[in-house]
Amino acid sequence: MSIYDKMLNDGESLVRDEIPLDYDYVPEKVPFRETEQEEIAHALRPLINGRSGKNLFIHGLPGVGKTFVIKHLFREIGFETNNIQPLYINCWKKDTSHRIALEICKQIGYKWTHNKGTDELLKSILEILNKRSTVICLDEVDKTKDLDILYNLCEDLNNKTIILVTNYADWISDLDDRIKSRLIPGVLEFKPYNADSTKGILEERKNFAFVPGVWEENAFDLVVEKTWQLKDIRTGLFLLKESSDVAEINVSRKITIDHTRKAIAKFSDNFKIKDSGEFGEDEQQIIEIIKANSGKTIKELYKIYTEKEGDKSYRTFYRKIDELLENHMVELGEKEGKSRIIIYSKKLSEF
Ligand SMILES: Nc1ncnc2c1ncn2[C@@H]1O[C@H](COP(=O)(O)OP(=O)(O)OP(=O)(O)O)[C@@H](O)[C@H]1O
Ligand SMILES: [Mg+2]
Description:
This protein has helices at 34-48, 66-80, 97-108, 118-129, 148-156, 177-183, 195-209, 217-230, 233-249, 257-271, 281-292, 298-307, 314-326, 347-350; strands at 56-60, 84-90, 133-139, 160-166, 186-190, 296-297, 330-332, 341-344. It is of the alpha/beta class. It has 3 domains: 3-12 and 193-271, Helicase, Ruva Protein, domain 3 (Orthogonal Bundle), CATH 1.10.8; 34-190, P-loop containing nucleotide triphosphate hydrolases (Rossmann fold), CATH 3.40.50; 276-350, Winged helix-like DNA-binding domain superfamily/Winged helix DNA-binding domain (Arc Repressor Mutant, subunit A), CATH 1.10.10.10. Strands 2-3-4-1-5 form a 5-stranded parallel β-sheet, with helices on both faces. A 3-stranded antiparallel β-sheet has the order 6-8-7. It binds adenosine-5'-triphosphate and magnesium ion.
C-alpha cells in the first residue's frame, strides 16, 4: 500500500454530515430513555381530552438527555394532535417573567406585544391558550430571576402540564410555598447513562455523521470510555468531532487512537475555562475546602468555611459554589435528602 492511500485527497472529508454532531440535533428516535419518555407522556395524556395533566419536576446531571427527550416529545405532539399547544422555554435565554411572556407570545404567534407589560401580555396569552390544552416546559428553570409567571400559569392556565427542568435536585424544595402548593409536581430523575447506553448513543451518531469505516475501533472505544466517565453525552459528541478534525489536519484517512488522545487533551483545555489559579482568594479557599472535604453538603461545607474564618454569607457562599460548578471545578454528587452534595472535580485532572 502506498503512503498516499492513507492520506486524504484534497476536498475529501471523513465527515459526511456534521448535523448529527450538533448539541441541538434531535434524533428521530429516543433510545435508552423509553421509561422517562413514557412517564412524561403519561403526565400529558389527560390534555388530549381537554383535562389538566400532571405537572413534573425533572432533574439530572448535564448532558443526560433531559432537553432532548422533551423536545422530541413536543415535536411528536405537534405531529399528532392539534388539541395541545407545546411551549418550550429555555430560562437561561429567557430569564425574567417578562422575557418568558414575550417568548410565549412569539411561539403562539401573538404579535401585539409592543409596549405591553407582563400582566397585559399574560392576559392575552391566557385568552389564547385557554381555548385548548397547554404543555409548557421551563428548561434550566433555576436560571430565572423571578418566578411570578410560574405562579400566574399555575393559577390561571386551564388544562395544563407544567414541566420544570434543572440540574439541581433540591431546587424545588427552596421554591416559594405558594407556587409549590399549586404545582404539586411528580418528580422524575434522569440518571446518567450506563456504559452500554453511552456506546449505543454515540455509535448511532457516529454512523450518521462519518464516512463508514473511518473510525478505528480502539479510537471510538476511547471516546465512549471518556464520555461514560464524565457522564455527559455532549463530551462524546465533542470528542467525535474533534478527533476527526485532528485526523483531517493530519490528512489521515482513518481516525486513530492518537487523534482521539489529542482531542481529549484539547477537550480539557477548552473546558478548563478557568484553572483554580484564575479564581479570587475566596473561591480558592472554597476550592481547597471542597478538595479536602469532597462529598459533603453545601451546608456542611459552609460550616467548615466559617470555622476557617471565612466571612461571606451563606448566600454568597452558595453563589460561589454555583460559579465553581459552572466552571467544572467542582461537581454535584448524589443528593442526600434535600441537600446538594459537592464533590471535587476529578474530571480535568484525569486527562
Ligand atoms: N438517549 C439519547 N439518544 C440520543 N442522543 C442523546 C440521548 N441522550 C442525550 N443525547 C444527546 O446528548 C446531548 C445532550 O443532551 P441534552 O441536551 O438533552 O442534555 P440535558 O440533560 O438537557 O443537559 P443540561 O442539563 O446540561 O441541559 C444532546 O445532543 C442529545 O441529542
Ligand atoms: Mg438541557
